[in-house]
């Protein structure tokens, strides 16, 4: 009769074998030959592109390293600046309603996709290089695990790119990266640029000088006049904070100077 220690060892061994198989075997859902298109699909031509916005990267969907078919993949820390050209495929009905690597439910009628190394979720603009059709997808899954493919698209995205019949297409990927609110706020605090608001340009030097004095008093800000040939450009500033300069430009536009715009040096 087995004692409790022996039973525990057998259970631990079984769990280890299962985990090993999960980490090393490919997920068959990524083999397009095993997949099918929906038999009664709605009109996906009206499905909107994914709407890029800031989302924190998923904890569960971004293991630093993972192995499939004996090949190790390293997930990127960020998708910022990522571009790539290669072959796209698509996956559909077989996986509709099942969980993605991000822990969400795969909806083949949404603008989504799978990628091997981009952090989840990421937003990607995909261009079919054969017809220049484009879509914006939200990457929330892993795959495709074929050396010659760089992205797996949802049924809806593949339809929009006109690649359902061919199954694959040569595409260009461009990540649409949205900074976190904290990063944006920090960048503004570290802003060392000088900002000016150009209000008006005129060949009438006297008028520009008079207007400079008037606006300096009205808005409590310094002014400068930049001369280019016979043209005099009136600018308010310098202003150390871009949001303040942008607000001043907007105020001037509303107060009778519609040509006002921001200059950064």
TrEMBL record:
Topology relative to the lipid bilayer, per the entry, is: Lipid-anchor
Q: Where is the SPOR domain?
A: 189-265
Highest taxon in the source lineage: Bacteria
Q: May I ask which residue range the UniProt record assigns to the signal sequence?
A: 1-23
Where does the protein principally reside? membrane
The enzyme class is lyase
Q: Does the keyword Zinc apply?
A: no
Q: Which UniProt keywords apply?
A: Cell membrane, Cell wall biogenesis/degradation, Lipoprotein, Lyase, Membrane, Palmitate, Signal
Q: Where is this chain's protein located in or outside the cell? A: Cell membrane
Recorded hits in Pfam families, A to Z, give: DPBB_1 (PF03330), SPOR (PF05036)
In the Enzyme Commission scheme, what number(s) does this protein have? 4.2.2.-
Q: Which InterPro entries match?
A: RlpA, RlpA-like_DPBB, RlpA-like_sf, RplA, SPOR-like_dom, SPOR-like_sf
Q: Which family does it belong to?
A: Belongs to the RlpA family.
Role according to the record: Lytic transglycosylase with a strong preference for naked glycan strands that lack stem peptides.
Record's HAMAP family?
A: RlpA
Its recorded name reads: Endolytic peptidoglycan transglycosylase RlpA
Look up and give the organism this protein is from: Shewanella colwelliana (Alteromonas colwelliana)
